[in-house]
Every structure is written in structure tokens, then in C-alpha cells.
Amino acid sequence: MSKDKSLYLVAVDGSEWSDRAAAFAVEKASKENARIIFITVIPWSGFQPLTMDEIAYRPIDKGIEEDLAKKNVLDPLYDKYKDTKIDISTEYHWGNPSEVIHDRAKKLKAAQVFVGRRGRSKISDLILGSVANTLAHTLGVPITLVP
Questions:
Q1: Which family does it belong to (predicted)?
Q2: DSSP 4
């Protein structure tokens, strides 16, 4: 991985919104000769609200959850873009997505962060917030919210 290239950190979660953010970042990186890290964060908190699907299908074993994150989120994106001339890598982490992405962007000195904007209701955003909204207000690094 070349350290002299700008780094784009792309937050992904397997959703159509994060796929669009990845595509936009790859397009921009190819024009600007930047490198990309696709990052996914596996939330693990007893205090974080979960959807019914997450409750029903959440594996108990963290190793299984990590394998699913790689198989369902990171590997498909890497495979889709690996033949481009862009330096692409992937990483996954455990924790609060907003906090982890914020910390990684700062530590890696990301030139820009790309995040898909989910179409959640205004009430959900007010009560729960969103990763995109939190990062947009706290990151201090240029951020692109992709619709």
C-alpha cells in the first residue's frame, strides 16, 4: 500500500446505499489516483437497539459474525473492484460504527470518508441518530454522503 497516495475510507455495510458509496469512491479514486479502504463495523453492544431481523438472525459466536462480515460485505466489494488499478484493501472492526469510523479516519489520516445515506425516517434519526449524520457533524475530515 502506497503511503504517498491520498486515502479514501469507505464505510460499508452491505446495503445498496453503501454499494453506491463504494462505487462513487472508486470512480473518484480512479480519477485522483487515491487508495481505498473499505471498512465495516460490526456493532456489539447490549445497549444498541436491534431490528427484529438482527435479533432473530444474530449469531452468538463472534467468529461467525466476522466471517459473515467478510463474506457478505467486504469480499463482494473487493472482488468487484480488485481488477481496477486502485490500491484497495478491507478491514472490519467491532464497536460503535460512528466511533470506529471516526477513529480509523483520524488514525489513518484519511483524505476523505464516503458513507451511504440510508433512507430512514426523520423520527428514527432524531431518536437514534445515524452513522452518516453523526460523522457529518463530528468527523472533521471531508465526508461525502452518497444517496
A1: Belongs to the universal stress protein A family.
A2: T
Indicate the domain borders of the chain.
Answer: 7-146
Return the amino acid letter for 137.
H
* CATH topology assigned to domain 7-146: Rossmann fold (3.40.50)
β-strands 35-42, 7-11: how paired?
parallel
- The answer to whether the CB of 70 falls within 8 A of the CB of 36 is no
Cα gap 86→114, rounded to integer Å: 16
pLDDT for 25-39, tens place per residue?
Answer: 999 999 999 999 999
CA distance 36 to 77: 11
Q: What percent of the chain has pLDDT over 70?
A: 78
| CA dist., res. 38 & res. 89, Å (int) | 6
| pLDDT for the residue 90 | 97
Cα(37)–Cα(105) distance, rounded to whole angstroms? 10
pLDDT computed for residue 121 by the predictor: 42
